Amino acid sequence: xxxxxxxxxxxxxxxLLLGSAGRxxxxxxxxxxxxxPPVGVxxxxxxxxxxxxxxxxxxxxxxxxxxxxxxxxLGTGYAAYGLEVWAGTGCENQVNRTxxxxxxxxxxxxxxxxxxxxxxxxxxxxxxxxxxxxxxxGTGGTGGTGGTGGGADATVGGGDTAGTENSAGGxxxxxxxxxxxxxxxxxxxxxxxxQTLSLYFLLLDSNFALGGQAQYKVTYKLNAPGPPGxxxxxxxxGIAPITWTPTPxxxxxxxxxxxxxxxxxxxxxxxxxxxxxxxxNTLPAGCVDSSILYAGARPDDKYKCGTANKTSSRANAxxxxxxxxxxxxxxxxxxxxxxxxxxxxxxxxxxxxxxxFEAYREAGGEGGGGFCSxxxxxxxxxxxxxxxxxxxxxxxxxxxT
Length: 401
Hints:
Blueprint (H helix, E strand, L loop, with lengths): L3 H25 L5 E2 L5 E3 L12 E3 H5 L3 E8 L7 E7 L5 H5 L5 E7 L5 E8 H5 L23 E3 L40 E10 L5 E12 L7 E5 L6 E6 L9 E9 L3 H8 L29 E6 L4 E4 L8 E9 L11 E3 L4 E3 H7 L10 E3 L6 H19 L1
Parallel strand pairs: 3-10, 7-8
Antiparallel strand pairs: 1-4, 2-4, 4-7, 5-6, 5-9, 9-10, 11-12, 12-15, 13-14, 13-16, 16-17, 18-19
């Protein structure tokens, strides 16, 4: 006799068994929880640390050999897997790690001995080494094994890094022959906007099956805004007034300000280090060509002598020594605190400035107040200074009567 209740019971048991099998397969396919706590991420040589996000990488971070340190929490069941760190796109898929059109490069590999892996270091240069993917990507080598207990450490192994955007493969830390810049730090793309890159922390078994994963996204920007144009200078005492014209329709919309650079470096120490022979009572004839400041250079911070915000078109180069000839130039900065190449420099010679009222009194004048001033030394503006002095004298006499 047909029993409908028995039929329903039979199919209910079948469905339960199929569901259980599905859940077991999901666990072996990547159900182990892997996490990277935000408090477990540190940067060690980040440019402008605390003023930009910890996930932001700029050009100097790469030059300074900055590195991330991660704490990675592995879920229950990790012991059957090795931990590998990859960078790129879609690295959870094996074809993107080992296929002929790979989009990922390996950063580290280790056998964890604790559910918590501490001090897993990822150098910025290695993170950037294979950016944009492509074919023939090298591997990052194997890392050291973690210690025992909850304080296990892991370091990135040696070996060749993956290639840069234009040249895959090759050795880590190599330099660009033209600029001396490490190849990993060289902007090989014209992109001016920040680019996104992902780190993958993968638990993989001996058959490369994925047991669990965590991702950590960073953004990087190696290109800096181009310099402004029409840089000009004036005369000041202990300063050099500088003006410029922002580049119209600049494709880089991340400009956040400007920096002024001076050669010699500001302060008396900068003059002494330059070897310039100067006389505080003699106006120099002009500047000699600088090996530090020239169009397209990216000078060291020691030559920085002023700043301005992104809406400015003028600023003062400060802490300068009178009667010293300075090459002065301007570079643009962006929101990642990249500093671009400088414009062609101009020659500035700070010198003592005499107020018109001071000169008027020294000449025997008796009027009060004053607002005009001029340089004590002959310059192309001398004629204007004479006219200004005459105008001030006329105004004083009128007020006196």
